[in-house]
TrEMBL record:
PANTHER family for this protein: PEPTIDYL-PROLYL CIS-TRANS ISOMERASE-RELATED (PTHR45625), PEPTIDYLPROLYL ISOMERASE DOMAIN AND WD REPEAT-CONTAINING PROTEIN 1 (PTHR45625:SF4)
Matching InterPro entries: Cyclophilin-like_dom_sf, Cyclophilin-type_PPIase_CS, Cyclophilin-type_PPIase_dom, Cyclophilin_A-like
Superkingdom of the organism of origin: Bacteria
Family matches, as Gene3D superfamilies: Cyclophilin-like
Family (UniProt): Belongs to the cyclophilin-type PPIase family.
EC class name: isomerase
Catalytic reaction annotation: [protein]-peptidylproline (omega=180) = [protein]-peptidylproline (omega=0)
Function: PPIases accelerate the folding of proteins. It catalyzes the cis-trans isomerization of proline imidic peptide bonds in oligopeptides.
Organism whose genome encodes this protein: Candidatus Stercoripulliclostridium merdipullorum
EC number: 5.2.1.8
CDD domains: cyclophilin
Domain annotation PPIase cyclophilin-type: ranges: 14-158
Protein name according to UniProt: Peptidyl-prolyl cis-trans isomerase
PROSITE patterns referenced in this protein's UniProt entry, alphabetically: CSA_PPIASE_1, CSA_PPIASE_2
Length: 200
């Protein structure tokens, strides 16, 4: 039976997800351990790209990272391009996946939830669960239209492009994605009050 979690936000909203160990058992076990340790409490969604995903699990509202916390150790990337052929979960709207660097075995505590489908991520990132209901997806998409996207800036690119990255030019979109960063503090951050294991 899938492990179910609830991401409770400080503004009272909730995102309910079902984790899928049949696709990524080590990733699910790692994430659940972080949840049980209270690792995510007080962290914010620090990277938000409308029409793509929301990312959290690495920063407090003041911009200080928690990625060096001892419990956030790096884990093996459970996805096809890293030898894990059983993870066929696609990056569709509502799917939760682990963030990483160029190193395929570098995922620690950061995760992202898709607001829309992104098939180019399939097989290269460890998807490990999905939202349980339309209400939760609506919360994810509402966050996706929020604060960090408004304050995103791109090195070497005009600010107005950062506000409208999806203009049909795949090469520039990829460059935008690789260069994106957010300033801290930013207005109206979406903060995680806690992530809990859902009661049956």
């Amino acid at each position: 039976m899938a492990e179910r979690i609830v991401i409770r936000l400080t503004d009272g909203r909730e995102i309910r997800l079902a984790l899928c160990p049949e696709y990524a058992p080590e990733t699910v076990a790692h994430f659940v351990e972080l949840v049980k340790r209270g690792y995510y409490t007080g962290l914010c969604f620090h990277r938000v790209i409308n029409g793509f995903m929301i990312q959290g699990g690495g920063f407090r509202v003041d911009g200080n990272t928690v990625s060096d916390a001892p419990e956030a150790r790096a884990i093996r990337g459970e996805f096809a391009s890293n030898g894990c052929k059983t993870n066929t979960l696609k990056h569709e709207a509502g799917v939760i996946s682990m963030a990483r660097t160029q190193d395929k075995n570098s995922a620690t505590g950061q995760f992202f939830i898709m607001t829309d489908a992104a098939p180019h991520l399939d097989g290269d990132y460890a998807a490990f669960g999905k939202v349980e209901d339309p209400e939760s997806l609506a919360v994810v998409r509402a966050i996706g239209k929020g604060a960090t996207y408004r304050t995103a800036r791109v090195r070497g690119m005009p600010y107005e492009y950062a506000q409208n990255p999806y203009r049909g030019n795949a090469r520039m979109e990829q460059y935008y994605m690789s260069q994106l960063f957010s300033d801290f503090p930013y207005p109206d951050p979406v903060v995680i009050a806690e992530i809990v294991i859902a009661a049956d």
